[in-house]
Hints:
Helix content is 12%, strand content 40%. By secondary structure, it is mostly beta strands.
Amino acid sequence: MERQRTARPGPRYVKGHCCGDGFLLLLDPGDRIPLSEDAVRRVCDPHAGLGGDGLVRLVETAGGGCHRRPRTAWFLDCREPDGSHTLLCGPAAGFAARYLAEAGLAPAGPVGFATPVGDQRATVDDKGRATVALPRPRVLGTASVTAEDRTHAATTVSLGSLHLVSVVDTPVSYLDLTKEPRTDSAAFPRTAGVIRPAPDLVFVNVLPRGSLRVRAYRPGTGEVRTGGTVACAAAAAVQHAAGGWDTTVVENPAGALTVTLAAGAPALLTGPTAISAEGVLDTRWLAAA
């Protein structure tokens, strides 16, 4: 007797990372995958789902979808693990560019993507390192954060989302981030135009060779990875304090990241990217709860 299949094959997925952030990518050329917030939460759940710091749905703009852009072939629909939309995500573009190059769906060189807030470009070199542009960091002022009963001066940096960056003398590896640090919320700018109202709390050691060692805490979530905007915010705060823009190396378990800043220009983030798994989703994960 033939064993009945329990899975219900659905769209293909790709799992991997870029610049320290882990992603799930769903290939949806025809813009046909229903993707509710609940479905994203289930798929990104590290225990019951596949796990991921974010999910990217990749839609072919010439395939009849609703997101048509004349200069780009793909639209990036980026989601946070809680299911909410992210308007722009540089590392997600880098990971998508790596996948498209390996799958033969994009030519060598820079790959352009459409996003809800404009075009995004990513380049992957022959060593598997992606370079992506993030919003220009804006240093908005000072505040403070208290961790383990010690209060540290902090710099408020916005890259669309808000970060509170503290350069500390204590090795960041010693900080107990199982307890939520307290922030001086009265010092936050009132008109920063941020997407996420609660800032990421970023603790930084400046190492003798000038590179940075970083840990970050997100209120309501806990400790988060040091890729993407966290790395750029840390570099921006340190470079601003030094009085000039430059290139900074930020340590990351996935491989060193470099952040290049210049006056009036987007932040350029370069770091490793790789694909770790591919497969097919069960359609029940994407069905309404």
